[in-house]
Write a structure and sequence with these properties.
Elements: E1 3-8, E2 26-27, E3 30-31, H1 32-43, E4 47-52, H2 57-63, E5 69-72, H3 77-87, E6 94-99, H4 107-118, E7 123-129, E8 135-137, E9 143-146, E10 153-155, E11 159-162, H5 163-171, H6 175-183, H7 190-196, E12 202-205, H8 216-225
Parallel strand pairs: 1-4, 1-6, 4-5, 7-12
Antiparallel strand pairs: 2-3, 6-11, 7-10, 7-11, 8-9
Helix pairs in contact: 1-4, 5-7
Bound molecules: cytidine-5'-triphosphate and magnesium ion.
Amino acid sequence: MSAVGIVAAAGSGSRLGADKPKALVELAGRPLVSWAVDTLLAGGVDEVVVAVPAAERDAFAAVLPGSVALVDGGATRTASVRAALSAAGPHADAVLVHDAARPLTPPDVVARVLAALAAGVPAVVPVLPVVDTTVVVDAAGTVTEAVPRAVLRRVQTPQGFDRAVLVAAYAALDDALVDALVDAAALTDDAAVVRAAGVPVTTVAGDERAAKVTVPHDLHLAALQATR
Ligand code: CTP
Ligand code: MG
């Protein structure tokens, strides 16, 4: 099985508030995007395509190996992944989609996702349990119900797909469906795209170290943990 990795790195990082795109922000001396690319390669992916902010292409090219393909991302994560997917080699059997914003993801997570695909599942996501009490609130912030957390999971990346399944699911994703899913806050990852196409999504164990860097506190925590 050959696998291509896609790194979604075209976001601006507005919540992090740095003076450059989040994927170029450094963690222990290396940009977040470099950590993400290295994790995919170390975990067994054969080649990598990175979706970057169009205006920053040169800056990304300067920090990534020449073997990594760059494509201009879009206005949303979905658009960025779609662009990278069309540039990803058609010879690959599998596609792993990873966030540049998860720099410390252990290669073991990549390996678990690849193993599930090799075993024949069409789609697989790394997940972790929910440990906090989790509730639903109304518009006033009053708790209306507690959610049974035993059935809940937090979903991470890289998410793995049979390449033909993911390509078909993105092709079936027309603008009206995107709008409906975004309105329902149901289009935050690639698994949602294949689920909208009726494809079952299985799970493997994620890892707390694959936490997403979203706000400055997350970067401080990552800096304490960065050892590679
Ligand atoms: N992403 C992307 N293209 C976009 C938006 C996001 O490739 N148009 C990527 C980001 O680069 C990031 C991942 O999707 O690696 C997860 O998104 P998020 O953590 O929300 O990053 P940003 O969108 O950059 O951050 P913010 O929402 O705070 O602006
Ligand atoms: Mg975002």
